[in-house]
Amino acid sequence: MTTSRSAARNSSPPPSWAQRPASLARAVTAELVGRIVRGEHPPGTPLPPEPALCETFAVSRTVVREAVKVLQEKGLVQVRQGSGTTVTAPALWNMLDEQVLAASIAQDESLAILDDLVVTRRLLESDMANVAARLATAEVVGRLRTLVDRMDELVDDHVTYAEHDRAFHDVIMQSSGNRIARGVVRALESQVVNTARYMGHPERAMCVASNRGHRRIYERIAAHDPGGAAEAMFTHITEAWLVRRSAPGDPVRLER
Fold first, then answer.
1. What residues are paired with 78 via a beta bridge?
2. pLDDT digit of tens for each residue in the chain (256 aa)?
3. Which one of 4, 92, 175, 211 is least enclosed by Cβ atoms within 10 Å?
């Protein structure tokens, strides 16, 4: 009986106060990420010292140290013994990090960050479409055809259409066997798939045009035409983004 009571005590969740420092560290980290990306702490300048940060956020030194450690892991600061903590240049930031990418997109009025995201996705998915066209089995071709046909029926339901759209691209990525490229694309997409700046304002005409691009990709994969599949994917991703893109000026970063 004593043993079971002891086990029950050991298996019980920790009290909320024990979890608070970690939650505070996450909150402080998120706020500092935003401030650094917005330029409130410019590159090359020192981050405020621990006492100042403790006072600003009303937290302990332990919380501040944990937050600074996470900032360092994200590439936003450099910690040197005796020299304090210095904000790093944007070229050193981890742009695949969820908080860094989200803050950068929110701050970027020119949409250059999203343009670069599209260019990266376009490069990786074009290559995966090339490989998929060489490796696609009859089952994969059938799944793609089913998705394309179904999307023709969903052009008035942009939410469900978008779900099938992502499934279509994922079938191709999985078929390529490139787990690293797929992981990068999925990580990038997960950060922006619900943001209006990336998704635009979907309407019927946009879905109709988008699915014409999907059908061209499917047809090239079904024909086992690697070059054609890569070109169709490149064109589809580019054109779909240009339709959604709302920033003024020419998107020169997309030019190739």
1. 86
2. 444 444 444 555 544 433 455 688 999 999 999 999 999 999 999 999 999 999 999 999 999 999 999 999 999 999 988 778 999 999 999 999 989 999 999 888 889 999 999 999 999 999 999 999 999 999 999 999 999 999 999 999 999 999 999 999 999 999 999 999 999 999 999 888 878 888 888 889 999 999 999 999 999 999 999 999 999 999 999 999 999 998 777 888 888 8
3. 4
- φ, ψ for residue 85 (rounded to 5)? -115, 125
Sequence letter at residue 172: I
Three-class SS string for 61-99? HHHHHHHHHHHHHCCCEEEECCCEEEECCHHHCCCCCHH
Phi-psi region of 108 (alpha: psi -120 to 50; beta: other; left: phi over 0): beta
The residues near 193 (Cβ < 8 Å, ≥ 6 apart) are 162, 166, 199
- Report the distance separating Cα 77 and Cα 70, nearest Å: 9
Q: Which residue has the tokens 């890569």?
A: 230
Alpha helices in the chain (DSSP H): 2-11, 16-38, 50-57, 61-73, 98-107, 112-135, 138-153, 158-176, 179-192, 196-199, 204-222, 226-244
Topology of the domain comprising 108-254: Four Helix Bundle (Hemerythrin (Met), subunit A) (1.20.120)
Instruction: Tell me, yes or no, if the two domains 2-92 and 108-254 fold the same way.
Output: no
Whether domain 2-92 has CATH 1.20.1730.10: the reply is no
Residue ranges of domains in the chain: 2-92, 108-254
